[in-house]
Amino acid sequence: MTTHGPVMPVWNCGGCGLPWPCTTRKQELRAQFVGAPVSLALYLGSHLVQAAEDMPWTPAGALHHRFLGWTRHPPELPQRRTATMPAEPNRDAPQWAR
């Protein structure tokens, strides 16, 4: 069970105090719903509806970005460094173009 649940009606994280879902909860949700992006969107969409009722002064676009916008982007993965082989010169190209 996570400590990073929403504290309503302000929708801050109970674990770290950041706007919910916080970075930690997003990572947990990605792991929990791996391979089920539609289920994740439905789960978060239901929270978005409740948050919109609790915070009617918050613009709809901001709530959408906060609750659903991050789900369409894969998490940042460390870039893997690979060795590259130099390309072979084109033997048909003029000598100056090699």
Topology:
Blueprint: E1 6-7, E2 12-13, H1 23-32, H2 37-54, H3 60-67
Antiparallel strand pairs: 1-2
Helix pairs in contact: 2-3
The helix/strand order is: EEHHH
Mean pLDDT: 86
Helix content: 25-40%
Number of helices: 3
Total beta-strand segments: 2
Stretches where pLDDT is under 50 for at least 5 consecutive residues are none
Structural write-up:
With 98 residues, the protein is mostly helical. The chain is built from three helices and two strands. The protein has helices at 23-32, 37-54, 60-67, and strands at residues 6-7, 12-13. A hairpin with a 4-residue loop joins strand 1 and strand 2 (12-13). The protein is elongated. The mean pLDDT is 86.
Brief digest:
This protein has 98 residues and is mainly alpha-helical.
Features:
98 residues, 4% strand, single chain, elongated, two-stranded antiparallel ribbon, mainly alpha
